[in-house]
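Table S4 entry, Splicing factor 3B subunit 2-like.
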Amino acid sequence: MMASTHIYDVSGAMAARKMGGGQESQGVEVALAPEELELDPMAMTQKYEEHVREQQAQVEKEDFSDMVAEHAAKQKQKKRKAQPQDTRGGAKKYKEFKF
């Protein structure tokens, strides 16, 4: 309805993203504490690699056995519900009538 008074030129950003692939080609973004800003680049790189190794080790140590057991219990319960239940010892052909 009403035109905006501002015009944004995003063609430069789009061209850079297509050619360079965005921020991936520029490096990795890392959050640092103020005291870590005084470290040299090699120390920062070493600290980052150590953090990545810790994360990978944590993922490898993760135990999924409880999730597998829970899934197996659910499947067993579904299978039980799917089977017809016969609570009485034998199926009777005729209904019992009282006179």
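DSSP finds three helices and no strands in the chain.
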